[in-house]
């Protein structure tokens, strides 16, 4: 099968694969759960195949959860599809190499989101401690009460410490505040975690208030204002750089668009790239230039973010 027929077949396979991914990843979970609940109430007039629908839906639900938890493994079916269309093992090798790289990138993004949430929790903690101090509590009692408050977005069924503001570092701070330990030292140790750097300022305010008799509530109030202002500046910078990131993504997808256009015209670009010496050379040079361009563009945008 060659020519336009093979191109149509490739397009049909890609369309089916995309539809399967969409059905597995995008569809509303509430609809599936409602179907699972209602199909269990079956009658004798139901067809035999309807009894297997709940099990099939539950299996799809587990597959969807696994796919979301290990999204880097989606590189494997994409590589298998390209290998089948191009008749070469090179896409399989590329897919095997891409799995750890994509996993590292996804973990980095997840870590950045966790750091953002932790920074927001530190600012909220400062505000909660200020409120408790204004109510007349002692500093240690105010910190305990603020840490025991459930942060926004926490699981209602979770205990106060399991869904706390400071994550794994909360236990040491709670122990220091409850038993009269060195609270500033515990706060500085907790500030070493990503996103919790603001706790070092809280430790400094605490130390100054204890040693010099300064007002702790006033210092924490100023610290909270500074942390929220810093977060606002980061959000504004991220909004300004959204256009640059969009340009990087569009430029990265242009080679894929060129391959699709070539397949639509019947040029069979995968066969040329994977089975001819000139195509292999062009593929190697293109992959190198694509990686170098993406690295340079990301470095420019991240440099602007860091500045």
UniProtKB/TrEMBL annotation:
It is a multi-pass membrane protein. InterPro entries: T2SS_GspF_dom. Residues 135-259 form the Type II secretion system protein GspF domain. It is found in: Cell membrane. Pfam families: T2SSF (PF00482). It comes from the Bacteria. The keyword Transmembrane helix applies. Keywords: Cell membrane, Membrane, Transmembrane, Transmembrane helix. One of its GO terms (cellular component) is plasma membrane. The chain crosses the membrane at residues 6-25, 74-98, 241-266, 278-298. This is Type II secretion system protein GspF domain-containing protein. It comes from Streptomyces griseus subsp. griseus (strain JCM 4626 / CBS 651.72 / NBRC 13350 / KCC S-0626 / ISP 5235). The lineage of its organism: Bacteria, Bacillati, Actinomycetota, Actinomycetes, Kitasatosporales.
């Amino acid at each position: 099968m060659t020519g336009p027929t093979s191109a149509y077949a490739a397009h049909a396979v890609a369309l089916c694969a995309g539809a399967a991914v969409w059905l597995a990843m995008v569809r509303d979970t509430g609809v599936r759960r409602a179907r699972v609940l209602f199909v269990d109430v079956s009658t004798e007039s139901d067809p035999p195949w309807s009894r297997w629908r709940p099990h099939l839906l539950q299996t799809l639900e587990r597959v969807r959860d696994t796919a979301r938890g290990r999204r880097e493994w989606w590189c494997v079916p994409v590589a298998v599809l390209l290998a089948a269309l191009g008749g070469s093992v090179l896409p399989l090798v590329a897919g095997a190499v891409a799995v750890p790289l994509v996993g590292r990138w996804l973990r980095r993004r997840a870590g950045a989101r966790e750091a953002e949430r932790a920074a927001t929790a530190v600012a909220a903690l400062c505000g909660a401690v200020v409120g408790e101090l204004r109510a007349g509590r002692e500093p240690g009692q105010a910190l305990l009460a603020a840490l025991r408050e459930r942060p926004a977005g926490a699981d209602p069924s979770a205990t106060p410490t399991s869904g706390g503001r400071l994550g794994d570092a909360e236990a040491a701070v709670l122990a220091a505040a409850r038993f009269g330990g060195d609270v500033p030292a515990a706060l500085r140790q907790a500030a070493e975690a990503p996103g919790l750097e603001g706790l070092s300022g809280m430790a400094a305010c605490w130390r100054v208030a204890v040693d010099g008799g300064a007002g702790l509530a006033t210092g924490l109030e100023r610290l909270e204002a500074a942390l929220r202002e810093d977060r606002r500046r980061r959000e504004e910078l991220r909004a300004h750089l959204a256009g640059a990131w969009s340009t990087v993504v569009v430029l990265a997808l242009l080679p894929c668009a060129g391959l699709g256009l070539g397949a639509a015209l019947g040029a069979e670009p995968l066969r040329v790239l994977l089975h001819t010496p000139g195509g292999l050379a062009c593929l190697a040079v293109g992959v190198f230039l694509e990686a170098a361009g993406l690295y340079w563009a990301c470095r420019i945008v991240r440099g602007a973010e860091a500045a």
